[in-house]
């Protein structure tokens, strides 16, 4: 595929998963170009040295508005729509892995953006919980036919995209609207990106494609996930026919090696692969290193929560 690469977005606390994601890309897709879109200043040299991964962080962004306003939870991935290293890209959250030849869905001849087809008709309550407050959308964007897409809204952790299908001014207007109306769109970019995509498709500004290409782990019982994504000790991932999907551990529970609340083995398998490929580490030493990464992540997550709470306290005191 010409002028195409895979972008994995991450911050320091989920870099451990991003490395597993990169390992899964190499396992199933070979030497396809990879870029880490990073929120933060931490080093990703091990991914660079191991898989030739490109790094794109705030300091490398050329557009002043994006550099200043489009980094942080829920907005970092939006940078790719204007500053992706490639015209066409697959965007992945860090807590995902590739499972099979996912590139078979990259039909850019007929679509500018290809998103997951959830095959789920959302209720009003679900739309208001996961995407946007319906009454506010009707108030502020009366021309948007939100009901027409009840079965289309999707988790934005994985999608194929094309550079410059949206204008910077449209994105700037969305962010300004969110700043003035923080209660309207939900879950980071998930609500407003769904809105941007379907509004643009309805207006004929973009060509939209949909494929069943994302498996959301929290939506299924653990035993079902285990049977669907089997890892055998000597053979590795066991695929059924030409199966191809993106496994996404969205939600609160993340695929650390010791988390018994979810089935984490596919991610753990590829995290082990990264250690083997990057440092030749296997066996018991690899398991210890994975546990250390998990503990470091937990500490960073709690530190971030504490900083957020302190910031809230400071704002209350100022008012």
- What Rg do the Cα atoms give? 20 Å
Portion in beta strands: 15-25%
Supply the helix-strand structural class.
alpha/beta
Q: What does the largest sheet look like? A: 5 strands, mixed
Helix-strand string: EHEHEHHEEEHHEHHEEHEEEHH
Name the shape in a single word: globular
- Give the neighbour order of strands across the main sheet: 3-2-1-4-7
Helix content: 40-55%
Summary tags:
319 residues; 3-stranded mixed sheet; 11 helices
Reconstruct the topology from this structure:
Layout: E1 4-11, H1 15-29, E2 34-39, H2 45-51, E3 54-56, H3 64-69, H4 80-83, E4 88-93, E5 96-99, E6 113-116, H5 124-130, H6 134-140, E7 158-162, H7 168-180, H8 189-202, E8 208-211, E9 214-216, H9 222-228, E10 230-232, E11 236-238, E12 245-248, H10 265-279, H11 283-318
Parallel strand pairs: 1-2, 1-4, 2-3, 6-8, 9-12
Antiparallel strand pairs: 4-7, 5-12, 10-11
Helix pairs in contact: 1-10
Written account of the structure:
With 319 residues, the chain is of the alpha/beta class. Helix content is 41%, strand content 17%. The protein is built from 11 helices and 12 strands. The strands form 4 sheets. A 5-stranded mixed beta sheet has the order 3-2-1-4-7, with helices on one face. A 3-stranded mixed beta sheet has the order 5-12-9. Helix 1 crosses helix 10. It starts with a strand and ends with a helix.
């Amino acid at each position: 595929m010409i002028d195409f690469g895979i972008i994995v977005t991450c911050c320091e606390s989920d870099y451990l998963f991003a490395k597993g994601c990169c390992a899964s890309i190499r396992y199933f897709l070979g030497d396809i170009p990879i870029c880490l879109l990073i929120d933060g200043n931490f080093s990703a040299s091990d991914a660079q040295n191991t898989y030739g991964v490109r790094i794109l962080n705030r300091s490398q962004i050329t557009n002043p508005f994006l550099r200043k306003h489009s980094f942080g939870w829920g907005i970092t991935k939006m940078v790719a729509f204007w500053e992706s290293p490639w015209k066409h890209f697959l965007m992945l959250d860090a807590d995902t892995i590739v499972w099979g030849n996912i590139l078979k869905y990259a039909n850019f001849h007929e679509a500018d953006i290809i998103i997951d087809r959830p095959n789920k008709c959302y209720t009003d309550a679900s739309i208001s919980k996961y995407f946007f407050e319906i009454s506010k959308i009707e108030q502020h964007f009366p021309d948007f036919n939100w009901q027409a897409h009840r079965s289309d809204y999707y988790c934005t952790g994985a999608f194929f995209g094309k550079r410059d299908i949206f204008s910077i001014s449209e994105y700037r207007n969305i962010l300004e609207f969110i700043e003035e109306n923080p209660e309207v769109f939900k879950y980071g970019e998930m609500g407003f990106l769904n809105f941007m995509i379907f509004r643009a498709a309805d207006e004929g500004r973009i060509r939209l494609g949909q494929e069943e290409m994302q498996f959301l782990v929290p939506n299924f019982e653990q035993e079902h996930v285990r049977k669907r994504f089997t890892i055998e000790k000597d053979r590795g991932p066991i695929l059924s026919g030409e199966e191809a999907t993106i496994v996404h551990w969205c939600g609160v529970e993340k695929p650390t090696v010791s988390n018994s609340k979810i089935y984490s083995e596919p991610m753990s398998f590829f995290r082990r692969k990264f250690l083997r490929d990057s440092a030749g580490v296997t066996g018991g030493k690899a398991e210890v290193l994975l546990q250390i990464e998990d503990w470091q992540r937990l500490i960073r997550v709690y530190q971030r929560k504490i900083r957020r709470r302190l910031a809230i306290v400071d704002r209350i005191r100022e008012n």
